[in-house]
Amino acid sequence: MKQLLLSLISILSFQFLNAQDTSYYNKNWKSCYKGEASYARVVKIGKDGYKAIDYYYPTWKIQMTGAYEDHELKIKTGDFVYFYPDGIIKIKAYYESDQLNDWYIECDSSGFPKDSMFFVRDKKEGLSKFYHKNKYLWYTENHKNGVLHDTTLTYYPDGKIKRIEVYDYNNLKLGKCFDKNGKKIPYTPLLQFPNLSGDNNDLYSWLDKNLIYPESMKNLNMEGRVVLTFVITENGELADLEVVESNENAFTVAALRTLKRMPKWNTFKLDNEYISFKFKLPIRFKLDQYPTQEVEYTYNNEPVFLSATVSPEFEGGEAKMLDFIKEKLDYPEYAIENRAEGTVLVSFIVTNEGKIVEIKVNKKIGYGIEEEAKRIVKSMPNWKPGTIDEKPVHVKHAIKIQFTIPN
């Protein structure tokens, strides 16, 4: 009986320790509660450091095995192996003090190698091989101290050479292309990097000309930094736009507004095939570097400006607007009975389509006057929207409506 009791205590102690060592994460690898988890991590301390095993949750299929030098699990050491949910190896890599050192091999979902690269102190070195999704050797590269050096070869599915490129420390010195019969044809590079379409295709030059500094942040003498990620689609448009870092919402709004106005990109191509690639773009807001424009908040995920290059306008101008108000105004009887008069300030947003939304009365008189003012503004036809850089934008606007008891 005593032996059985000791065994039960040992089992319970083991389960308790395991529970203590298990952490849970959501699909973005952010710490979360167990019920929200997509991954689970078990960490054990051993002679090789902190041994970690990551699992797909709740299936408890292994997602990764590896070890770390530090208790914060930031410095990788030794072999790391990543798995697909069905148990097939996805990535094999070797680290020394958090630097890739040795072969890095990535496989597709069937276990066939896609990429195999050799690293020395986190930099590519020597021969790297890359395989096409149809599982033939696609191209090979040579690196020296992390940059392209010597010969890069591209292959047809039958193994014949398609392209020869010779680099001297990342500088292309020679480029030739061949058809399937070995005949020389016009040269196109293996890698065609994306850039902005149009005359000004440099991203940071374009940002310098188009990014607008929030006036409220300038008044506070405050600088900012926003980091965004996005994917360039096959059509050259931005997709999956996400803010991963920001020190102030006003900078976030300004950055998002700018990127949504960005022209199309020339897509990222590898051997003339479109490649989906996730970009990480840090944007630094420095005082006196960009023009200012106040952004107050957003409407339908688009920024709302306090002013614009061209202000929104009632169709036909202010005189037509006053005529419209006089025609539509129905003085509340209760206000007449109580001799209530005055000027009401009504604010609203004129959207980039000219619609009037979010109507508010900023000065109250009572006796039904505010409600009548809102009714009149709500009944207005669409306005001419305000514009910045000739592009329609949401603009906050205000008008005064005079209530005077008729004789």
Mean pLDDT: 84
Kindly estimate the percentage of residues that lie in beta strands according to DSSP: 35-45%
Structural class: alpha+beta
- The portion of residues assigned to helices is 10-25%
Number of strands: 31
Uncertain segments of ≥5 residues (pLDDT<50)? 1-20
How is this structure best described in words?
The protein is α+β, with helices and mostly antiparallel strands and 407 residues long. The protein has three domains: 21-124, no CATH class; 197-293, TonB (TolA/TonB C-terminal domain, 2-Layer Sandwich); 318-403, TolA/TonB C-terminal domain (2-Layer Sandwich), CATH 3.30.2420. Helices cover 17% and strands 44% of the residues. It has seven helices and 31 strands. It has a 17-stranded antiparallel β-sheet that branches. β5 (76-83) and β6 (89-96) form a beta hairpin. The longest helix is centred in the N-terminal third of the chain and has 20 residues, at 2-21. The chain is elongated, with a radius of gyration of 32 Å. Residues 1-20 have low confidence and may be disordered.
What attributes does this structure have?
44% strand, TolA/TonB C-terminal domain, alpha+beta, 3 domains, elongated, 407 residues, 7 helices
In short:
This protein has 407 residues and is an alpha+beta fold. It is built from seven helices and 31 strands.
SSE layout:
Elements: H1 2-21, E1 22-25, E2 39-46, E3 49-56, E4 61-68, E5 76-83, E6 89-96, E7 99-100, E8 102-107, E9 113-120, E10 123-124, E11 126-131, E12 137-144, E13 147-148, E14 150-155, E15 161-168, E16 171-178, E17 184-185, E18 191-192, E19 195-196, H2 203-210, H3 215-219, E20 224-232, E21 238-246, H4 249-260, E22 265-266, E23 269-270, E24 273-274, E25 278-285, E26 295-299, E27 302-305, H5 318-328, H6 333-337, E28 342-350, E29 356-361, H7 369-378, E30 386-388, E31 391-403
Parallel strand pairs: 27-31
Antiparallel strand pairs: 1-2, 2-3, 3-4, 4-5, 5-6, 6-7, 6-8, 8-9, 9-10, 9-11, 11-12, 12-13, 12-14, 14-15, 15-16, 16-17, 18-23, 19-22, 20-21, 20-25, 23-24, 26-27, 28-29, 28-31, 30-31
